[in-house]
Design goal:
Length: 515
C-alpha cells in the first residue's frame, strides 16, 4: 500500500520530552552512558550509530536546589518513564518539587510536558507561564509556549479553522525569532524552528536547524526525531527507519513520537504488520496519542476492519471532538457497518467544520440517494458538490443531477421517455442520462467518494529533548517488538468512504536535566 487515500489520517509525530533536573543554573549529575556502535545505512552521510544507553542507578544531588525537591522530581520522572506512563502521579510529584523550590525550571518543564502528552495544551501553557514568572526572562520557557502554539495551530487546521491556525503559527514564529536574536544557540527554539519549516515544506531549512542542534547535543531526541521526519518526507525510508529505531528509540525507548513515526515509515515501506505493532506500542505508552490512533485506525479501515477502526476514531473524538479527519473516518466506518444514518451524521458534523470540502457533499448525497431514500437531501448535497467542485460535464454526479430533479418533479416517478430516433436506438440510456453511479447490490453498501489528504506529522511536547542527564531508571528499557504480529486480513476491496491521512500533532520526548 502506498497511502491510505481518503480512509484514515496518517500522522507524523514530532518529539519533545522534558526529563531534566536542576534549577536555573545547576543540574543533577549522573555517570555517563555506555555506548556501542553499529554500521549505518550507506545512504546516510552522518554518523548514525546505534547507542545502548545504560541508565545510571545513582545520582548526585546538586547544590542550590532543595534535596527534597530533587527527590520529588526524580519520583515524577520515574512515573513518566513507566509503561504506561503514570501522568497523574508524575504531576503530583512535579508540583511538590515546585512547591519546595519555586525556581526549579525542569520541574515546570516536565509538568508542562505531561499536559502536552495528554492533549491539554492550554494547561501546558499555564505551567510554562508560571515558570517564566518564577524565572523572568527564561528563553526555554518562552520557546515551549511557542511550540505549544504550533500544536494548537495544527489542531485548528484539523478543525477547519484556517485563520486561527495561521495566527497561531505566526505567533509561534515571532516567539522563536525573538529568542534566536537573543540566544542563537537556544536548543528549544532551534528544534521548534526545524519543525516549523518542515511543516511548510522547506526541508532544507529544517535540516539546517536540526544540524545545528545535533552539533551542540548529538543525542537530542527531538532533533533526532525531526531528522527522521525529514528523511521520511524525502522518501528516504531506510534512513528514516534507522534514525527512528536505532537513534531516537535507543536514546528514549518510551518516545511515543518516535514509535508513531517509525510505524508510518514501516507503512510506507509496505510492512503493515510492523507498522501496526509500532503504532500500538505508541498507544500503549500514551493512551492519548492522537496521531498513533489515527494511523492505526486508517490501517484498520483500509483492511475493512470497521469496528476496530471506529473504536480508534471514537477515542480520538473524545480527546479532540472537532477533529475533521476522525469524523470523516468514523463516518466511513459506520457506513461499512451498514449504519448509513449514523455515517451521514458524522459527515455532516465534518461539513460544518470544513464547509468547502466538496467530496463530503458527494458522499452524503450518495447515501441519501441510494440508502436512505431521501431525494431532497440527496439533490441538495449534490448541488453543493457541483457548486464547490465545478466538475466537468461528464462527471457522474453532475450528469445525473438533472435526472434526479426530474424524478423529484414527477413525484418520484420518471417521466415516459420519448420514442427514440432510429439512429439513436443503441444510445437511449445515455441520452436519458442514466449511469451506474449510486447503484448497489441488495443489502450492500457501496464505497463513498474518496478524497486524498497528505500525511501529517505529529508534534512532541516542548522540551530540550537531551537525554544525557535524564534521571529515569532501567524500567525504561526498550520493549521487544513482536515479530509474530498477525497480518491484517487481506483486503477484499476498498473501504466505504474512508478518511484521508493527517500529520501528528505533537507529542513527546523525555526531558533531561539542563545545565
Amino acid at each position: 500500500m502506498k497511502t491510505l487515500g481518503a480512509r484514515g489520517a496518517i500522522v507524523f509525530l514530532m518529539g519533545a520530552v522534558a526529563v531534566s533536573c536542576g534549577g536555573s543554573t545547576s543540574q543533577v549529575k549522573e555517570t555517563g552512558p555506555v555506548v556501542t556502535k553499529q554500521k549505518a545505512p550507506a545512504e546516510e552521510e552522518e554518523d548514525l550509530t546505534e547507542r545502548k544507553v545504560v541508565v545510571p542507578k545513582k545520582i548526585e544531588f546538586v547544590e542550590g536546589i532543595d534535596k527534597e525537591a530533587q527527590k520529588a522530581f526524580k519520583r515524577g520522572v520515574i512515573a513518566v518513564s513507566a509503561t504506561p506512563p503514570d501522568y497523574v502521579a508524575a504531576r503530583t510529584e512535579f508540583e511538590k518539587a515546585i512547591a519546595l523550590d519555586k525556581a526549579f525550571l525542569e520541574a515546570y518543564f516536565n509538568l508542562g510536558m505531561t499536559y502536552e502528552r495528554t492533549e491539554q495544551p492550554e494547561k501546558a501553557i499555564e505551567v510554562y507561564e508560571r515558570a517564566i514568572r518564577a524565572n523572568p526572562g527564561n528563553l526555554d520557557a518562552e520557546a515551549y509556549i511557542g511550540k505549544v502554539y504550533l500544536s494548537l495551530s495544527h489542531r485548528a487546521k484539523q478543525s477547519g479553522n484556517a485563520d486561527k491556525a495561521r495566527k497561531l503559527e505566526n505567533d509561534a514564529k515571532k516567539i522563536f525569532d525573538e529568542i534566536i536574536i537573543k540566544d542563537p544557540d537556544n536548543v528549544t527554539a532551534n528544534n521548534a524552528l526545524a519543525l516549523y519549516w518542515l511543516f511548510r515544506g522547506k526541508r532544507d531549512m529544517a535540516e539546517d536547524f536540526v544540524k545545528k542542534v545535533l552539533m551542540m547535543k548529538p543525542r537530542n531526541v527531538v532533533a533526532l526525531n525531526t531528522r527522521g521526519l525529514i528523511n521520511l518526507m524525502a522518501g528516504k525510508l531506510r534512513i528514516a527507519r534507522w534514525v527512528f529505531e536505532e537513534k531516537a528509540l535507543k536514546e528514549d525507548p518510551n518516545s511515543t513520537e518516535a514509535w508513531t513515526n517509525l510505524g508510518l515509515t514501516y507503512f510506507k515501506m509496505g510492512k503493515t504488520p510492523e507498522a501496526v505493532t509500532s503504532f500500538e506500542k505508541a498507544i500503549e505508552l500514551n493512551r492519548d496519542n492522537v496521531p498513533a490512533r489515527m494511523n492505526v485506525a486508517a490501517i484498520y479501515l483500509d483492511y475493512l476492519h470497521y469496528e476496530a477502526a471506529l473504536k480508534e476514531y471514537n477515542a480520538v473524538l473524545k480527546l479532540v471532538p472537532n477533529n475533521v479527519e476522525a469524523l470523516i473516518g468514523s463516518g466511513s466506518s459506520l457506513l461499512g457497518m451498514h449504519k448509513p444514518k449514523e455515517a451521514v451524521e458524522r459527515w455532516e458534523k465534518a461539513i460544518k467544520l470544513a464547509p468547502n470540502r466538496a467530496v463530503l457533499y458527494a458522499r452524503t448525497g450518495k447515501v441519501y440517494e441510494t440508502l436512505l431514500n431521501e431525494m431532497d437531501k440527496a439533490i441538495a448535497a449534490y448541488e453543493k458538490y457541483v457548486a464547490l467542485a465545478n466538475p466537468p460535464a461528464n462527471d457522474p454526479i453532475k450528469a445525473k443531477l438533472p435526472v434526479l430533479k426530474q424524478i423529484q418533479a414527477q413525484g418520484g416517478m420518471m417521466a415516459p421517455e420519448p420514442e427514440p430516433e432510429p439512429e439513436a436506438e443503441d444510445g437511449a440510456a445515455e441520452a436519458a442520462g442514466e449511469t451506474d453511479e449510486g447503484k448497489t447490490e441488495q443489502g450492500k453498501t457501496t464505497p463513498a467518494v474518496q478524497e486524498k489528504t497528505e500525511p501529517q506529522p505529529a508534534v512532541e511536547p516542548g522540551t530540550s529533548g537531551d537525554k544525557k542527564d535524564q534521571t529515569k531508571t532501567d524500567q525504561t528499557q526498550q520493549d521487544k517488538k513482536h515479530e509474530d504480529k498477525a497480518q491484517p486480513a487481506k483486503k477484499e476491496g476498498t473501504a466505504a468512504g474512508k478518511a484521508a491521512p493527517a500529520p501528528a500533532p505533537e507529542k513527546e520526548e523525555k526531558t533531561t536535566p539542563k545545565g
